[in-house]
Amino acid sequence: MTYNYLIGILIKHHFEYDYEQLNLVLDNRNKSVDNLKDLQHYLETELIVNTDIKYVNVQYVDSKNCDLVQVADVFNNLLYRYGNGQQFQHQGKGEKNYNKNKQIMTMLLPRIRCAIRFPESKCEFTLYEDNSLTNV
User: Fold this and answer.
1) Mean residue pLDDT across the chain
2) Helix ranges restricted to H, the chain
3) Across residues 20-31, what is the average pLDDT?
4) For the chain, what are the domain ranges?
């Protein structure tokens, strides 16, 4: 239930307008076996009522058979390493790895459309020098 709520908040906050359909392709490790359609039903209820989105499709795939999900995993791991590198750099550790990951992140920054901290009050992750997640 929390997973559905968080996905709904993310989509409502960042894609409220200008989109009429939502197609999510998720790694099947993110689903509960009991209720495969729960996320789709939840998003249909929340988004069709509260946004411009009129169509929702949630598809679960095995990541070993889906290049798009594999790329998302690689990117997610890069963000994780970058965030951990920030933490280690502040502690005086991991300078070399942090700088390598920072170079990669600098190349990717123009392509990051939105980013959120979770939980906001405890996350120190930043993408830009001014401690923000976006270059706005």
Assistant:
1) 76
2) 2-14, 38-50, 67-90, 95-108
3) 85
4) 2-61, 64-136
